[in-house]
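Hey, I was hoping to borrow your eyes for a little while. A protein chain has come my way and I'm curious about its shape. Take your time with it, there's no hurry, and the full record follows here:
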Amino acid sequence: MTESHFYISFGKLIPGDSMKDVIDDLDRKIVRHICNGIYSYDELGRLCNVGRNTVYRRVDKLEKMGIITRRIIAVPNFEKLNLSAVIIGMDVNPGDLDRTSDFLKRQPQVKFLWKTYGTHDLVFTIICDKGDVGTCIYNLKKALEKLGIQSTKIDASTSISWEKIDLSPY
């Protein structure tokens, strides 16, 4: 009888016989730093107390595992661009959930989208001009109606200021 091995990563059990597919504290540090700025391999090595080549191998591994997909990203100042975030919680008929989610995924103004358990079936964030928040919500409802999707409940909150943006998971 063969013994199965599992390793814990992000609270999940991962089958395997080696640790090569599991991320560790160094990988987490690298992800955190990459999410907060643009660094050379040398700079990341200094921040993480390891050599440049170690950082290069770890970043390559994280890319191959699909944990990171982009290494350069700009975070705009939404206030200076006069943009608001609208956080929307929506309930739809169970048979419409996947269709609604697929529609929202294709919308360029939808920046974050989650299927959830709890108060709402879907929670998502849209970005729109500060003066057009009501129009954005109205247009979203109309677009869903045209698809034959009726939301059974919708709650929306609009940002008045951007207090923090941190895309790092750690």
